[in-house]
Design brief:
The chain is of the alpha+beta class. The chain is built from 6 helices and 7 strands. It is globular and about 50 Å long.
């Protein structure tokens, strides 16, 4: 397997992988966009815009990487397995007033108005709960010394092949090289927590997204990786 930097020419394959993964685990998406099966183009257009924004950001705040594996028949033919979008703003010395938001597209917003597939209350609450938890448990502790994993997506056909681990390892290596209190930060689904825990991430906050009076809810966890000898205890 090899890791390379993605370009705008990879948008279609990223979208293909992303939609496959999305429909493999719909927990977060069903909560925010309950009518996505009725309006599939809304989902496709929204996801495409988010991915396009990651690739086209002109400020250099985001880096997208793809993991590929050579074909058994012809090693020169590469098959994309997974990709990740990193918020590298602080790593590259860019200045911001506040830490990055891992819950929203980096540029612009959802593609259509109104969005027929979404539950606006759930969308707003999801962003608010995750952003508040990250500020409280990550940003207040580590400030700008964080490399944020904004997205990581694996083609379900390549699960448990090590692609996600390889992408995470890139970030782990960067903060280990930096030292001086740097960490990798992310928001994890229940499905993704095992991967991160096996790589040495630790949970710093649990999150429950639930509208008062409703039974439906979703869970998430803020997690960080701190290089050995550089562990910060939360007060």
């Amino acid at each position: 397997m090899e890791v390379r930097t993605a370009t705008i020419h990879d948008l279609d394959i990223m979208l293909e992988i992303g939609l496959k993964a999305l429909y493999y685990d719909l927990t977060w998406w069903d909560y925010r966009y309950p009518l996505h099966r009725k309006y599939p183009e809304e989902t496709r257009n929204r996801v495409r815009l988010i991915y396009k924004n990651f690739l086209e950001n002109t400020s250099g705040e985001y880096l997208v990487q793809i993991v590929e594996a050579g074909s058994i028949e012809d090693p020169n033919i590469k098959h994309p397995m997974a990709w990740a979008a990193w918020d590298v703003a602080w790593l590259n010395g860019h200045e911001r007033k506040t830490p990055g938001d891992l819950t929203a597209p980096p540029v612009g917003g959802p593609p259509s108005s109104p969005n027929r597939d979404e539950n606006p209350q759930h969308v707003a609450l999801f962003r608010s709960v995750l952003a508040d938890a990250k500020k409280r448990s990550v940003d207040s502790v580590y400030g700008t010394k964080q490399l944020c994993l904004a997205f990581i997506v694996t083609d379900p056909g390549y699960f448990r092949r090590g692609a996600g681990k390889l992408l995470c390892q890139w970030g782990i290596d960067r903060v280990t090289e930096r030292g001086d209190g740097w960490v990798v930060a992310l928001i994890a689904t229940r499905m993704g927590r095992n991967l991160y825990e096996n790589l040495g991430f630790r949970k710093v906050a649990d999150m429950l997204v639930q509208v008062e009076g409703e039974e439906e809810s979703i869970e998430a966890a803020a997690m960080v990786y701190e290089p050995a000898g550089n562990v910060t205890q939360l007060e």
